[in-house]
Amino acid sequence: MSDLEGRLRAPGGGLSAGGPAAPGTAAAEHGQWRLIRRRFRRHKPAMVSLFLLIAIAAFAFLGPLVWTWDHQVHREIPSNAAPSLAHPLGTTNAGHDVMGQLMRGTQQSLQIALTISVLGTVIGAVWGAVAGYYRGWADAVMMRVVDVFLVVPLLVVVAAVGGNVQGGTQWYSVALIIAAFSWTSVSRVVRGVVLSLREQEFIEAARAAGASGARIVLRHLLPNAAGPIIVAATLLIASAVLLEAALSFIGFGIQPPDISLGQMIGSAQTAAFTRPWLFYPPGIVIVLICLTINFIGDGLRDALDPRQTMVRR
User: Fold this and answer.
1) Phi–psi pair at 91, nearest 5 degrees
2) % pLDDT > 70, the chain
3) What's the CA gap between 229 and 181, in Å, rounded?
4) Is pTM, for the whole model, over 0.85?
5) Averaged pLDDT for residues 86-100
6) Where in the sequence does UniProt note compositional bias of the Low complexity kind (predicted)?
7) Does residue 9 contact residue 128 with C-beta atoms inside 8 Å?
8) Which residues have a Cβ under 8 Å from the Cβ of 313 and sit 6 or more positions away?
9) 182 vs 19, 25, 208, 226, CA distance in Å?
């Protein structure tokens, strides 16, 4: 069982862990989500992580608008300069401003991770919901496909595909390739939730009313599995950041003249002790992104748990 499945299948792993909420009034739904927001706000590590993640995103996407240098080589930038007021993180041998590279690399890693999270969650949620609802031969075939994807080394497959796809070094190409192999854990989690939900009375009522299978999946099962799906999306972001960094580190992700955090670490690995300002900043940013995402996922898991009675202080 993967870490993602373990965290979501644990007691209180989702909004529907204690049984789905029957369709109710708009006021009741509003009150439920207000309670969820209150629980999340009381989860201090998650709130701190949320503000820190917002700060990292602002650094990546707004920083280049006000910073003097971008991630490109400039003649005016001295080579191998130590950190200074003009270049707080120093410069590279080729004449890059490391601060400008860090902004661009963080931006690339975040937009790749968010794209992977959205696509992987959508594909995995729909796949798992369909398999869990229809069961039988459809479930058997669809889950065997998932098993095949799970046993294949993801890093090796993505590296091989990315290295042979024209334009594979563009951020959106890298994101699409990784997303195509990152939905399996989500699908297994959602399938487990749907197997429980499909036996509930409100699903039987929908069948009796003549609702089609597609309508039941999209309008009833997936909304009631929102808790595990939301948590899965946050955890997939952290996994995507690490995977993209690993691909760029070994040369199959973002390529020069563009930059990513993994590529920055790879190009500065020999300078870890002689020029640490080149090596450690991208690594610290990767660690911060992954930690904040995981704490936010923990906060969402607790907030979406209908059986949660204790609040972290």
Assistant:
1) -135, 165
2) 84
3) 17
4) no
5) 85
6) 18-28
7) no
8) 42, 44
9) 28, 36, 36, 19
Is pLDDT at 7 greater than 70 in this prediction? no
Q: Is 294 within 8 Å of 235 (Cβ atoms)?
A: yes
Q: Over the stretch 213-268, which tens digit does the pLDDT of each residue have?
A: 788 888 888 888 877 888 888 888 888 888 888 887 777 777 777 888 888 888 88
The helix/strand/coil state of 149 is helix
What Cα–Cα distance (Å) separates residue 191 from each residue in 124, 126, 195, 274? Answer: 9, 9, 6, 51
CATH class of the structural domain 3-16+27-73+93-303: mainly alpha
Greatest alpha-carbon pair distance for the chain in Å reads: 74
Q: Is there a contact between 130 and 193 (Cβ–Cβ < 8 Å)? A: no
Q: What is the DSSP string of 77-124?
A: SPTTPPP-SSSTT-B-TTS-BHHHHHHHHHHHHHHHHHHHHHHHHHHH
| Ramachandran sector of residue 20 (left: φ over 0; alpha: ψ -120 to 50; beta: rest) | beta
Q: Is the peptide bond before 88 cis (omega within 30 degrees of 0)?
A: no
DSSP state of 19: -
Which DSSP letter does residue 221 get?
I
d(CA 127, CA 147) in angstroms, rounded, equals 13
Contact 78, 91 (CB under 8 A): yes
What HEC string does 196-210 produce? HHCCCHHHHHHHHCC
Q: What share of the chain is helix, strand, coil (3-state, %, to 5)?
A: 70, 0, 30
Residues 13, 6 contacting (CB under 8 angstroms): no
